[in-house]
Fold:
Amino acid sequence: MKHRTTLHAGRYLGFYEVNGWEFVSRQNASAVVVLIAVNDAQQLLLVEQFRPALQQSVIELPAGLVGDMDDPNEDILLAAQRELLEETGYFSEELEFLLSCPTSSGLTDEIISFIRARKLQRRGPGGGDASENITVHEIPVTEVDQWLSEHIRAGKPVDPKIYTALYWLEKQTP
Amino acid sequence: MKHRTTLHAGRYLGFYEVNGWEFVSRQNASAVVVLIAVNDAQQLLLVEQFRPALQQSVIELPAGLVGDMDDPNEDILLAAQRELLEETGYFSEELEFLLSCPTSSGLTDEIISFIRARKLQRRGPGGGDASENITVHEIPVTEVDQWLSEHIRAGKPVDPKIYTALYWLEKQTP
Structure:
């Protein structure tokens, strides 16, 4: 990027300035995948994990970094398949790329890729890799909205992209 | 925050580490408001502006920082009213807090507050303050989905929180 100045190179994030505008960029990932995965029982898979930045656990769609392991050229759908299995214990036979979107364009260049996962088979307990401690929630698609509302009332942070997923699941878009 | 180490203190963002986890935090804002505003013609107000981090313009909901002007204790609904007027030219008589959500909890502690704006009156052209160059889009609510798809096909980045807004507008939730 033209005129980009490095303010601090972290291990996972880089802190940059361009024309007086500050932002962070992931250093160790070529993409971020976010999974919209519904199992045969018509349950949406959600994950809950402690987020150090917020110092509390957050309810989110399953997600992970692409190319953060040994292979920087890891295929995005294979990465999505790996992350879904690691986090939720479900293997998906059919993954479809939906859309890439910026998450918070005022402070990061992060772009997430929404992936629709179908034909799910439970292969294990999930819970993430050795560095993660993830709780899996399997919530009937028709009850997710109310389930989220209950957790929000109880003070639990919820990622708004879950509602994006609900919108697309109803519309069968994008 | 316990054990938080400052890696770099920027002017607008701080870059921190806690237990080996890196993240950024806004320095000059007590909150971020995101507006779900529909005018009397049943059009959803969207904004498009150049985002330096991405080096391209992004289609988003109107949004802005709370407490970044003279008053660090600025009321969140008054801030939302101000930002909506600045960015879109519409004054809202009726603002309602909906929900606060983390935007990208893996790399920032940023929390956005969704605000529903009703009873809109056009007061000016919008376009943002002196430092901004914002294009306003007024799209019939029932056509937003297709309008976004056309822009996505043309390569324009779209913030996924717009779909969150569409979901809530349809459901009349949260």
Observations:
- The CA atoms of residues 107 and 124 of chain A lie 37 Å apart.
- The mean pLDDT of chain A is 93.
